[in-house]
Design brief:
The complex is a heterodimer of chains A (274) and B (232). Chain A contains 9 helices and no strands. By secondary structure, chain A is mostly helical. Chain A has 2 domains: 147 residues, no CATH class; 54 residues. In chain A, 47% of the residues are buried. Chain B has 232 residues and is mainly alpha-helical. Chain B has one domain. The relative contact order of chain B is 0.15. The model of chain B has no long low-confidence stretch (mean pLDDT 91). The chains are: A mainly alpha (274), B mainly alpha (232). At the A-B interface, helix 2, helix 3, helix 5, helix 6 and helix 8 of A face helix 2, helix 3, helix 5, helix 6 and helix 7 of B.
Chain lengths: 274, 232
Amino acid sequence: MEEPRPHEGVWIETENASSARRPRGAFLKRHWNAVWRLFFIQSSRNERTMDGLGLFAVLSPFLSKWARSREEGSSLARRHLGYFNAGLYLSSAVAGVVVNMEERRARGEAVTPERIDRTAAALSSVLAARANYFFDALLIPLGLTIASIFAIHGTYVGPVIFLVLYNYYHFQSRIGGYYRGVELGEGVGDAYVPRLFREERFVAGCAAFASGVFAALLFLKARSAGGAGFIAWGAALVAGSAVLRRRLSVVWSVVLVLFATALCLVIYGYVRLR
Amino acid sequence: MLPLVGLPLLGGALAVDNRASVRLMISQPICAGLLAGLVVGNPHDGFVAGALLQMLFLGMIPVRGIAAPDLALGGVVAGALYARAPGSMNADAGAKGLILLISLACALVVGVAGRALYRLWERRSYAFTGAALALAERGRFALASALHFSTALVHFAIGCVVTGIAFVAGASVISVLVPAVAGKWCEPLASLPVLAPFIGAGALVLLNLTRVRLFLFVAGFCAVFLVAFFRG
């Protein structure tokens, strides 16, 4: 009788997770052909299969090694050309898990295609949600707010800080995520996901603080440019923009407030000239 | 001549960064504007326009369902037009404000058009997957995966074409409109770079409405005023 496994289910700790740890240089040399492909995974995104073709392109260097016959190759290709949507930043971790499981299956371990597909689907939704929140709602707004703070003073340092901050996490997620996926297989769920983005709350706090600094600097600049009138105008713009964003699309709210501001400035100039 | 060649190439490259998911984020308007300014030989003005476009959209979270504009191409167009529009180099402050407004308007149009094109692409690009499947079933994996990478060229081409057309059209509009309507009454438009960023600040306030984040937002706000107060 088979012994019960500690974490039976979607996320099973891979038995040889620690023994699978290998030097990163050797890993990159072996997987380089897949790693650079990860950076184009959403290039062929479509409404029906999302990034299915992208995942296939990442796995394609390995397919001929995994398939023992032409029929098995066709079956592998069909499976990996199906629906795949793991977001952008951690789709590489899912791709790594798929590589790990397919390699084990090709070696003759008891890993069924259904288990691989089920694991990939379950991990995709969890990882996409975690990564999208961290990057889109916290890290990118923080980086861009810092860049804008520097831009107010006309220095080019801001974009550099933004690119360094963002790409530190970006490369960690995309290359490091793939590495961890290949190394841990299904164990990613237990060993990697809980440790993901541990600095999330700190980044959220920094983003809020930086937003406050940015807003205050705008008011200071408005005061030196146009006195109390500009401060009141700025406050009205903040309120108007916040209200419109709740009711209209982003583009429409920006267009309306921007052109209302420009129109008011022109009317003010015309009246002053008269 | 250089802008007419360089700008479409830059637009194409940034479209690949943005749409083909390379995502090094050099396609954000604040970087794209600076790069466009470098291409046309006036990095400072390119940076100003790109940064202003960025500030308008601060706090925008591009989650699914939000019609986020294509800010990569918008940033290139805004930066290039503001930095290199006919007469913009020696324009007075009022005319510069008007040129900035037209550049931002062109960038918004390009952003919306770029988004619409991408939606159309997402609806039609399943054809690539279907063709790749047919090839893969015959064991031609390398060719099937080459089909995937060929889509990056499509993004590059779309970026090139949209940027090229928008730059030429926008420069024509500026060269006709600015001499015709610029005058003393449009001098207050020089204040646009001071007021427009408040639009982004409004969105940032919305992002920080939970208790802890609102506290930190107010702390950051007050900290700047305290420093300004003590520095006189």
